[in-house]
Amino acid sequence: MTTDMFMQYSQEVLEHFTNPHNQGVIKDPDGVGMVGNPVCGDLMKIYLKIKKNKKGDEIISDVKFETLGCASAIATSSMITDLAKNKTIVEAKKITRDDVADALNGLPPIKLHCSNLASEALVAAIENYEKENKKK
């Protein structure tokens, strides 16, 4: 890889790629979501821990990710976890791909699908939590 390849990325994308936030696994997660893009090969997995606040709202108290993919895939995974942490389930479900891309000060057009994958992985983890929680 040449440094020219990284010139198209914002400083925020490079920061989240080289120093990802919330990377790892949560043992005994309350929800897990996994999505992938067979065309580019990116694979994202998001883990959630949910707690109730004083009002009784369900809050994402911890969130972590594992991602196999390009710089944009790792950066968007890192950013979605930052955006979701300490949000209610309702608030987190409303985080869009545009929110992720905007928080990273943009992505190259060919990499915008990564922000979509990140928001889909978060929603998949929330839906997994909701499905499992209904069983209890």
Estimate percent helicity: 40-55%
Q: Give the C-alpha Rg.
A: 15 Å
- Please give the count of helices: 6
Q: How many strands?
A: 3
Total individual domains: 1
Distance between the termini: 49 Å
Structural class by secondary-structure content: alpha+beta
CATH class: Alpha Beta
Q: In what range is the share of β-strand residues? A: 15-25%
Largest sheet: 3 strands, antiparallel
Mean pLDDT: 91
Q: Order of strands across the widest beta sheet?
A: 1-2-3
Overall CATH architecture: Alpha-Beta Complex
User: How would you sum up the global shape?
Assistant: globular
Low-confidence stretches: none
N-to-C SSE string, H for helix and E for strand: HHEEEHHHH
Secondary structure blueprint with pairings:
Elements: H1 3-6, H2 11-18, E1 31-36, E2 43-52, E3 58-68, H3 71-84, H4 89-93, H5 97-103, H6 112-135
Antiparallel strand pairs: 1-2, 2-3
Helix pairs in contact: 2-3, 3-6, 5-6
Comma- or semicolon-separated keywords:
136 residues; alpha+beta; Sufe protein. Chain: A; three-stranded antiparallel β-sheet; 6 helices; 3 strands
What does the model show?
- The protein is α+β, with helices and mostly antiparallel strands.
- The chain has a single domain, classed as Sufe protein. Chain: A, CATH 3.90.1010.10.
- The protein has six helices and three strands; from the N terminus they run ααβββαααα.
- The chain has helices spanning about 5, 10-20, 70-85, 90-95, 95-105, 110-135; strands at about 30-35, 45-50, 60-70.
- Strands 1-2-3 form a three-stranded antiparallel sheet.
- A hairpin with a 5-residue loop joins β2 and β3 (about 60-70).
- It is globular, with a radius of gyration of 15 Å.
- The mean pLDDT is about 90.
